[in-house]
Amino acid sequence: MKQLENVRTFGGEQQVWQHQSATLNCTMNFAIFLPEQAKTEKLPVLYWLSGLTCTEQNFITKAGAQRYAAQHKVIIVAPDTSPRGDDVVDNESYDLGKGAGFYLNATQQPWAKHYQMYDYIVNELPALIAEHFPVNGKQAISGHSMGGHGALTIALKNPQRYSSVSAFAPIVAPTQVPWGQKAFQHYLGDNQTQWTQYDATALVNAETRLPIRIDQGDKDSFLAEQLRPELFLDACRAHHVACEYYLRQGYDHSYYFIATFIGEHIAFHAKALYQDPRTA
User: Fold this and answer.
1) Catalytic annotation on 218?
2) Which of 66, 77, 143, 231 is the most exposed place for a label (fewest CB within 10 A)?
3) 78, β-bridge pairs
4) Is 82 a catalytic residue?
5) 280 has a pLDDT exceeding 60
């Protein structure tokens, strides 16, 4: 691994690292915030998954999360949103290719060689973090928009790995909206059975016990066509699954919205992480 950035903030360190990913077959960056207590303690980790067009930089420079992570003694890891590099296939559209990995394992060519973001987030990156940083084995996951989709689906598919999950303006039913349909068609092909493996609304079931929180702005320009939180909430009700849902008056899809409520999300996760009886 190679350290690219190390900045002191709120008593801790905001770092960016680069490594060669065997899963994605390319060089990847990830950001990590280490609270001051990480110098002497092993701490839990919150993974943050960003949305379309983002890199590891957007969250760490715009969300203001470090203040709250320091208060609650939580490490935050923010990976990139897709594989990167000159030999990684791309598309001229902002919602496909680089910056738009959708946190799934692509099965179709030419995407399958590099676009294995699900395995990267679930397996390779946590193993790397555990090897090199003072973590205690407890994890939570959160994200925004496409990253909210990723956080929800990853947590629902791996409830034993995560203490809690939250999302800002997530794509909760990608099989039913244009963003998801376009990405899934290219990455996964025509077999829509595979599509539902990455659809939070299809994945939630009566066995779901994870603490779930969603915040959504009512002035979000993508709300009606691309996000459709009511589909996920209906599925939760049908399966008697608890979901904290907040429709925020006047807020849009931007990082101004995220920055306003990120402190509440980190407190939500810290409560679950520090109550979780599992150990490393």
Assistant:
1) no
2) 231
3) 31
4) no
5) no
Does the predicted model carry a pTM greater than 0.85? yes
8: which residues sit within 8 A by CB, 6+ positions away?
Answer: 14
Rg (CA), the chain: 17
Q: What is the pLDDT of residues 152-208, one digit of tens each?
A: 999 999 999 999 999 999 999 999 999 999 999 999 999 899 999 999 999 999 999
Distance (Å) of CA 137 to CA 19, 107, 140, 162, 212: 21, 30, 10, 10, 20
Give phi and psi for 210, each to the nearest 5: -65, 140
Q: Which of 149, 220, 265, 269 is catalytic?
A: 220
Q: Pairing state of beta strands 75-79 and 135-144?
A: unpaired
Whether 145 is catalytic: yes
Residue type, 170: P
Residue from 50, 142, 145, 166 carrying the catalytic annotation: 145
Which residues, in sequence order, are CB contacts of 61 under 8 Å at separation 6+? none
